[in-house]
Amino acid sequence: QNSPFIGAKIGAEAVILLSDVEGFYTGDPSHEGSKRYTLIREITENMERQAREASSGKGKGGIWPKLQAAKAAINTNMICIVADGRIEGVLRRIMAGDDIGTIFVPSEAEGWKAAVASGGVLKAQIVVDQGAKKAILERGKSLLAAGITEVRGYFSAGATVSIVSEDGQEIARGWTNYSSSQTYNIKRKHSKLLRDIYGKSAPKEIVHRNNMTLARTWTPNVLVK
């Protein structure tokens, strides 16, 4: 339960809690109708009561303190992920965005990032080369046309898109300044050419850094599964 407070002190963006539970469920996990929450933005009184009751039962201990830790995390504007530590490669899979465990997201702080991150698997994808990947992940840069190798799916300007490396790893999400057809027309082109093609007011960034959130800070999920 101390990890959220340690995370807050060091400025962490997320806390991962590993145990022998797969996450938080809509009911008793042993019951056939119970489903795992994969995304929770608010911990309700009903959820807390359910966790207390589950923790008092035989073989169900552990979820109550984790729910309290998750509550502490989101109250300090951190994402919290509760997952089964027995899963092989669980940390790597969480960082890769696999549907594992339950993710708790702050409801107020950086709400647009939570909205972008919680969209599930996106069909709208922009594939980037290694140089663009490093620029985004290591230097905090915006996505420029020159680093784009492929455009997948159909989307309009202002839509949320997934930024994917050539090896299939999702590295970020963000709001795009251009539609899929526009992005396709300018991929691999220098930023200076964008205004020649789309006018003087055309932004040079396909996805601006301020409108982007990195994949390492969230896991793409739906409500329950």
From TrEMBL:
CDD domains: PUA_G5K. Keywords: ATP-binding, Kinase, Nucleotide-binding, Transferase. The keyword ATP-binding applies. The keyword Nucleotide-binding applies. Residues 124-203 form the PUA domain. SMART domains: PUA (SM00359). One of its GO terms (cellular component) is cytosol. It holds the Pfam family AA_kinase. GO terms for molecular function: ATP binding; glutamate 5-kinase activity; RNA binding. This is PUA domain-containing protein. It comes from marine sediment metagenome.
